[in-house]
Every structure is written in C-alpha cells, then in structure tokens.
Amino acid sequence: MHTKALVEALPAPAAEDSLADRVAALVEEHCTRWRDTRCDSPVLGPSIPRSTQRGNARAAVELIDRLASDVERYPGKGQGRRIWQERLRCAVREFGEQRLGWPAGYRRLLVSDEFYTASVVFARRARKFDPTLRLEAVGQALRNVWIANSLQMLLDLPVELSPSIFAYSMLYPYTDNYLDARDVPARAKRRFNGRLSRRLRGERLAPEGARERDIFRLVEMIEQDYPRAAFPDVHASLLAIQGGQVRSLHQQASREVLYTRDLLSISVEKGGSSVLADGYLVAGEPQRAEVDFFFGFGVLLQLLDDLQDVRADREAGHRTLFSTAADRVPLDSLTSQLFNYMSRILEPTRPFEAPAFADRLDLIRRNCTFLLVGAVAENEELFSPPFRQELVENWPFSLAAMRRLRRLADKRFKKAGRRLRAQGHGEGWGELLD
Q1: How crowded is the C-beta side of 106, counted as CA atoms within 13 Å?
Q2: Cα torsion angle, 310, 135, 235, 160, sign
Q3: 306-353: per-residue pLDDT in tens?
Q4: What's the whole-number mean pLDDT along residues 198-212?
Q5: How many CA atoms within 13 Å lie on the side-chain side of 271?
Q6: Contact 281/168 with Cβ under 8 angstroms?
Q7: 248 and 271 Cβ atoms separated by less than 8 Å
Q8: Rounded distance, CA 300 to CA 339, Å?
C-alpha cells in the first residue's frame, strides 16, 4: 500500500499548510451544508405493521441466543473453526435478508473473515501493548478500527489492521479519556496538548510519565509505517485532528459563551479531521475527492456520536448541538436534520458513484441509520410522541424492543466472553465479547 524503505525526516511545512488550508475550507463547507439541510421528518422506508415488528423482535431474541450459544462453543483452531464461522455468518445473513431487507450483495461484505480477523488481531495487540488497558478502552479503540476497515472496503483495499491503524486507534483511549476527565485540571490538559502537538510535528521529547510514554510509542509506530519525508500529509492529518481535539475543550468550559455556530464548527472540525486521519492512514496519498468524502463521513459520525451521548453530555456539562438544544426543545428537528445530512453525505458521488460501490455505501448508510434510531430509543424522553411514532412506523422494531434487545445482547455476549476466557480463548473472541 505504501513504500516503507524511505529515509525519515521532519515534516514539510508547505504540505502541512496546504492540508491545514483544506481542512479549514472543509469546515466552512460542511457548516454551510449543515445549515442548508432541511429538517423535515425522515422516512426510513415502507410502513411496517406492528405484528411484523413483534415478529422481528422475537426473531432477534432467537438470533442473539443462538449466536451467544455458538460463541460459547468456539472450537479454537482447525477445520472446526471454519465450519463454526460459516454457521454464524449464515445465521446473521438469513436474519438480515428475511427481517431487515438486506440485499444479496451484502453476502460478500458482512461478517467477512477480514473484518473478524482485523478485530481479533487488534484485541490481541492492544492487550499485549498495555495489559492494564480496561475493556471499555479496547472497545473504544476498536470502533475506530472498524471505521478504518470500512474505508478500506470503500476504497477496494485489503481489509486489514496495519501498524498505523492500530496506533491511531489506540491513541483514542489515551487522549480522549484524559481530555474528557472532569478531575484533570485545565492547565494539565493544556500542557498535555502542547506536548502532544510538538511530538506530532516530529520533535523528539522525553516522555513525562507512563501515559506519554505509551502515546509517544504509538506516534513512533505511525512514523515507521509512514515516514515523514515521503508522507507529510499523513502527519499533517494527525495535527489536524489534534487541533480539533484542542478546540473541543471549549465545550467543557462552563463559563465560556458558545453560540450554536461555535458548537457546530467544533463538532465539524473534530469529527471531520478524525476520519480524515483514518483516510490518510489507510490510503497514504488519497485523491482530493476521497479526502472530501473522508471529512464529510467524519462529520456525520461525530454528530451521530453527539446524539448518542446527549444524556451523558448533559450530565457532564459538555455542550454540543444536541445537549444544548435538549435543555430547551425536543430533539425532533435536529435529529431529522441529521438524517437528511446523512443522506447527502452518503449519496453516490465521485469517487464512489460506480455501481460497484452501491452495496458498500448502502451498508454504511444502514448502519448509520441504525445508530440514529438507536439513539432515539435510548433517549426517548427527549423526543416528542408524534416524532417517535412517525419514526417507528417505518422501522423493523419498536423503540422499546430496541432497548430490550440491546440489554439482552450485552448480557448474553458478556456471559459468553467470560466463558471463553475461562476456556483459554481470551485472546480471540473472549477479548471482543467480555
């Protein structure tokens, strides 16, 4: 995917400035695009009878129980594992096609060996890198691995875990959780961000403490995978997301006045830059149209994340478009706007307008829609009854069923994970499910 046998050097300022200018332009572009997006209620598909929704929920319970039971009987290595994997794939595909309307093209995309392997390899490497890392932190980092794998799928690249994707994904729990911690003084966060920015620019700093030691090791992995002299924009993209992280700290400053335009700009910059860095780490030298898509996809995921975290953000005093609006009005209009924004971001445009990309984009769109409806289900009190009713009329499950299914899946798969670890499979499925 890229040449590694090149001499390392400091980043080229011209390329770095060029990408910084592009990011600034994309922030403005997507702020305008968001403001221009309509707020009419989403139509998720054809009307679905209540009886069908109840049948779907029963089938989902059976699928969760079946998958969890099969996971507990994980055969380890050998031919038995191949048969076991195919049985799981068939169960998921059958449910998706019969209950969720998945097209036949998903057969070659979903539950693939490549996605599974990348996830398990990541879990193993994460535990080896830091045996003290909490399971929640591994899961947090794994979500970014899945984003990078999705970009690989879109770009028709091998779905795999490269050293730089591993390192960038691992940076999230080490940096995000520290910056979000309410018991860490603002001065300490500013010093941390200053030193990390210097390291991302190529300075060789002696780490201050175990956290910096691990973070600097991860940065070095990326430098080894993408030497600075050959890939200056890769490292400029890391500086871009770091800049977005620094600016997002304003959302935690309770005495600072932030208007809606400020909150929007912060989320756009942080989210867009985050997936932009994924794109550079996946492609090395992406095309301009690909850069634009990466950024827009990142904005979409950030706004979805803000919707999902609206309750936690309100409790912590973190201000986003959604947590601020929830103090005043139901979130019907904003959530409708987010759905319509998603439709614009994921429409088949250059460089993904060829028919070969239709199923891949549709898979991502369906997943994002599921996240949006799931956020409504988990925060039902923040939406008006007419909005909730209109939403679920065209959805395979009721909101209450979605909550019950999530709790059941959490319970069953955590139990399966514990049993796998007890059987000595902790470095594989046990790491992912416990």
Answers
A1: 22
A2: negative
A3: 999 999 999 988 899 999 999 999 999 999 999 999 999 998 777 787
A4: 94
A5: 22
A6: yes
A7: no
A8: 9
45: left (phi over 0), alpha (psi -120 to 50) or beta: left
SS in 3 state form for 53-97? Answer: HHHHHHHHHHHHHHHHHHHHCCCCCCHHHHHHHHHHHHHHHHHHH
Q: Which two tokens stand for residue 47?
A: 């009307």
Does an H or E element contain 14, and which?
helix 13-35
Give SS3 for 413: helix
- CB of 301 closer than 8 Å to CB of 275: yes
Q: 260-283 vs 13-35: helix axis angle to the nearest 10?
A: 130
Average pLDDT on 124-151 reads: 92
Give the tens place of pLDDT for each residue, 219-268. Answer: 999 999 999 999 999 999 999 999 999 898 888 866 677 889 999 999 99
Q: Which residue has the tokens 């409504």?
A: 376
The Cα–Cα gap between 214 and 373 comes to 37
Q: What confidence category does residue 36 fall into, taking pLDDT thresholds of 50, 70 and 90?
A: very high
Specify the 3-state DSSP secondary structure of 103: coil
CB 119 within 8 A of CB 146: yes
Residue with tokens 């770095």: 16
Peptide bond preceding 351: is omega within 30 degrees of 0, i.e. cis? Answer: yes
